[in-house]
Automatic annotation (TrEMBL):
GO terms for cellular component: cytoplasm. Pfam families: Acetyltransf_1. GO terms for molecular function: L-glutamate N-acetyltransferase activity. This is GCN5-related N-acetyltransferase. Keywords: Acyltransferase, Transferase. InterPro entries: Acyl_CoA_acyltransferase, GNAT_dom, NH2A_AcTrfase. The keyword Transferase applies.
Amino acid sequence: MIRKARIQDVKAIHSLLMHREEHDGLVLPRSFSQLYSHLRDFFVAVDDDGAVIGCCALNIIWENLAEIRSLVVVSKHRGKRLGRKLVEACLSEAVTLGIFKVYTLTEQTGFFAHLEFVQEEMDALNQKVFADCLNCPRFPDHCNEVAMVMVL
């Protein structure tokens, strides 16, 4: 099941984002402070027992732009379309909020292309987009991320 994150999910989300083996080091870790401040951005996937097995966030950048980020699904639950469902929940919320351009910075271009995101030059995105890049250990010389955009 996919649902909005709740306060009791913060520790599970933090664990997902901090354990590199669950996301192959492809997402930025987030502090507890960041997660509590941005909890309303997150959707979670939960199993039948209510355990959080995936997460994804929709981060509003500006009046016409939002970012899909922090997408992680526990490895043993991959292949069940949970990543797709998490992204679709974020896209639905973007439309509800009146935001019709969504981007992601990713190395998983095939996954997002399958969802109909298209590659775009990094320079085409607002520079505010790259605020998190400054905190990334791979910035600037070892970043392999690609900007992908969907216009809803």
